[in-house]
Design brief:
- This protein is of the alpha+beta class.
- It has 19 helices and 12 strands.
- Helix 1 (2-30) packs antiparallel against helix 2 (33-59), helix 2 runs antiparallel to helix 3 and helix 12 packs across helix 13 (348-355).
- It is elongated and about 120 Å long.
- The N and C termini lie far apart (67 Å).
């Protein structure tokens, strides 16, 4: 409808302008003031209608440009209304039959457009089955025992944990689902934007992973250049086999007994582009393929339509039954691409509804992947907790939930407040508000990934992020012993620096305070991430005489 609206509008505009120029020359001679000035006003409003429509098509009907949209909308009502008034007061008034036929024609066209609209509404392309994470629990009705009746079945035997994934699921043991519980074409998450094959090969030769070719982003970058640039440097982008540390872990796991099946558990969060099409289940899965090097594409997150619960492990759903609302979605160039982008910019509300669900603005959305546990299908042992930033945040002062916290922030903070702060958008991103977008760098503590690819800018941004009042380390006091029975405790909170003397024993009390980390520190994977204090003592000449917490070369 937008496309036909635009084509008809442009087609009518040229002959209407030519007629107005010819007609005004003749009408001006008659000196019929009402018809002349209503006609001039009509031409002026039509020009505003055309200019505002062109602006919407080229610059986007965004919140920042709502004034243009409402101007266009107002003119769309005023122009035909003013045309009717102009004809009624004109020098040559329409005959009664023309009034009736004109009104009937407009009404008929309106009825035709409504009929076409209703008959062409898109229908879901798949079944109506709705995925849920675990099987339904047994429901037990009220029961009264009599001497002849057996006991009803115990609803808790066997016990089904909330987060258990049924073994018959296509992605078992991964928790992610599609709406039909079937496989998902990779194009749903990549837009078929696989980058240049030669560029991918060059990246693989140079560093062993694709780092310059932005797989899955060529369509998005046309309207969101700032967000794509930020994402391209993020740990989310380098989450799959373009992450050499993760790749080695999966390679080792897949060599173990039942390793191919067990490796699918990782894929809900690390490799949806590989897992959801079913490639992760193949023993000959190619980690160097475009899909294996994609990481978390834009659509890996933005296609999610709901979370199953708050148990994490990638407990989300990606719809595979939704129709595509925009024409020429797959166009990569030519008129189709131009028309697709034009339509999206003219009517972005549908795109925004698809790509920005309300729960995206909640910490629960982050919990889908930043809350992890391992169970028997993965480790052949027992349930174990992995990283869990969500529950730690939920039980913190930052979330305004913890009663144990000494100091509370003035307002509640979500994951996005710290890890997606507003950032300048100098490339003209259409989603910018006041010249800024929500940062998609997702800065946290990982400097290893940018170091491997030589991204000094991201390393510097990460270091600045970490030093921005996140932790405070205070030398709180010292307890000194100069031999029996002389002991002394000295508070250092006033920043005094009492001298230390040879032969005395000094115990230093250090207090570490979490001021700006919205969860426990250190976060991340509990069995590998460490935090420690590097404590040094130097003499008057600056020579180090004692150190605890140094990193040795080994």
């Amino acid at each position: 409808m937008i496309l036909s609206h635009t084509i008809v509008g442009l087609a009518v505009l040229a002959p209407a302008a030519a007629f107005a120029a010819w007609h005004l020359k003749n009408a001006w001679r008659r000196r019929h003031r009402a018809s002349v000035w209503s006609g001039v006003a009509l031409v002026a409003l039509t020009a505003v209608l055309a200019v505002s429509g062109y602006y919407i098509l080229t610059e986007a009907n965004s919140r920042q440009n709502r004034g243009w949209f409402y101007t266009h909308l107002a003119c769309a009502f005023l122009v035909p209304s003013l045309y009717g008034a102009h004809r009624l007061v004109s020098y040559v008034k329409p005959v009664p039959r023309a009034k009736v036929s004109g009104a009937a024609g407009i009404g008929g066209l309106f009825a035709l457009f409504v009929a076409v609209h209703l008959s062409t509404l898109p229908q879901p392309t798949g079944g109506r089955k709705t995925a849920s994470l675990a099987t339904e629990g047994t429901k037990v009705a009220a029961w009264t025992k009599s001497s002849d009746e057996p006991l009803p079945p115990d609803p808790f035997v066997p016990f089904v944990p909330k987060a258990e994934v049924p073994r018959e699921r296509a992605f078992f043991p991964a928790a992610a689902t599609t709406t039909t519980l079937g496989l998902l074409p990779a194009a749903v998450l990549t837009n078929n934007d696989l980058g240049d094959a030669e560029g991918r090969a060059r990246d693989l030769r140079e560093k062993g992973f694709v780092w310059r070719e932005r797989i899955g982003a060529a369509t998005c970058v046309r309207c969101h250049p700032d967000i794509v640039e930020q994402w391209s440097r993020s740990a989310h982008r380098f989450s799959s086999f373009n992450n050499p540390f993760y790749r080695k872990s999966v390679e080792l796991l897949r060599k173990e007994e039942n390793g191919v099946l067990r490796s699918k558990w990782c894929s809900s969060c690390h490799d949806p582009v590989v897992m959801l099409p079913g490639d992760m289940a193949r023993a000959d899965m190619d980690m160097d393929s475009a899909h294996g090097q994609a990481g978390l594409t834009c659509l890996s997150c933005h296609q999610i339509d709901r979370l199953h619960d708050q148990t994490g492990n990638g407990a989300y759903n990606v719809p595979d039954t939704e129709p595509e609302p925009y024409l020429f979605k797959d166009a990569k160039g030519g008129p189709g691409l131009t028309l697709h982008d034009m339509i999206v910019k003219a009517r972005p509300a549908v795109h925004k509804e698809q790509m920005l669900k309300p729960f995206f603005r909640t910490s629960e959305f982050c919990s889908a992947c930043h809350k992890v546990s391992l169970d028997i299908p993965v480790n052949n042992y027992r349930w174990l907790r992995g990283q869990n930033e969500f529950d730690n945040w939920h039980d913190s002062g930052v979330a305004l939930n913890a009663s144990r916290t000494f100091y509370l922030p003035p307002v509640k903070k979500l994951c996005q407040d710290c890890h997606m702060p507003p950032e300048e958008a100098p490339r003209g991103d259409v989603s910018a508000k006041g010249g800024k977008v929500r940062s998609h760098r997702f800065l946290a503590v990982n400097t290893a990934l940018p170091h491997v690819r030589g991204d000094t800018d991201t390393i510097q941004r990460t270091e600045a992020f970490l030093r921005d009042e996140k932790l405070r380390v205070d030398v709180f006091s010292i307890h000194r012993r100069r031999g029996e029975p002389t002991e002394e405790s000295v508070s250092l909170l006033d920043r005094t620096k009492p001298p230390l003397h040879p032969s005395e024993t000094v115990e230093v009390h250090v207090v570490v305070r979490n001021k700006g980390v919205g969860h426990t520190f250190p976060g991340g994977t509990n069995d590998s991430n460490e935090g420690w204090i590097d404590f040094r003592v130097t003499d008057e000449s600056g020579r180090e005489v004692y150190r605890s917490g140094a990193i040795r070369e080994d």
